[in-house]
Write a structure and sequence with these properties.
31% helix; 171 residues; two-stranded antiparallel ribbon
Length: 171
């Protein structure tokens, strides 16, 4: 038993991930040598970002490392210039004109194609404080009960004419 604990302890010490620094305390950075992400930096990114950093996204798997300042434009392959994005948001940044910047005061900031900043979203993996949520709902006049989510629809066909009339009435 003591031998097993010793092995585990040694294994933990040997495999300790320095998520932002190397063994000499220097930031993980390979500069302009290559744009591909080495395993040590990828592990550090996973530990720092915990998944896609796009506001409101909760994707933890199938994420790609994105150079904030593109490698072809002189960006380095370093922790300070990399962010994890899911495939959908990575495509938006590269093909749809969405922006991502690293600022000293706000950290990673995302923007729409028109340049408007996308506000930070609450951490979507956190359920929140149930007591405070219920209190906010009461103050807003919301009464949520177990019956709230039961629809008044019983599976019959949608009345297309009625739906269009209702939409036209909203104008």
């Amino acid at each position: 038993m003591m031998m097993t604990i010793g092995f585990l302890k040694a294994d933990l010490l040997l495999n300790k991930v320095h998520w932002h620094d190397d063994k000499q305390g220097e930031p993980l950075n390979i500069g302009r040598k290559t744009r591909s992400i080495p395993p040590a930096i990828r592990r550090a990114l996973k530990r720092r970002d915990h998944g896609c950093r796009f506001p409101g996204c909760s994707c933890k798997r199938f994420v790609d490392a994105h150079h904030i300042q593109h490698w072809a434009d002189g960006g380095e392959t370093s922790m300070d210039n990399l962010v994890l994005l899911c495939r959908t948001h990575h495509r938006l940044v590269h093909e749809a004109g969405y922006g991502v910047q690293q600022t000293a005061e706000k950290g990673v900031v995302f923007s729409l194609p028109d340049g408007k900043i996308i506000p930070r979203a609450p951490h979507t993996r956190f359920r929140g404080n149930v007591v405070s949520i219920k209190s906010m709902n009461r103050k807003s006049g919301l009464k949520i009960t177990p019956e709230t989510s039961i629809p008044e629809w019983y599976g019959d066909r949608m009345d297309s004419d009625g739906a269009v009339d209702m939409l036209l009435d909203c104008e």
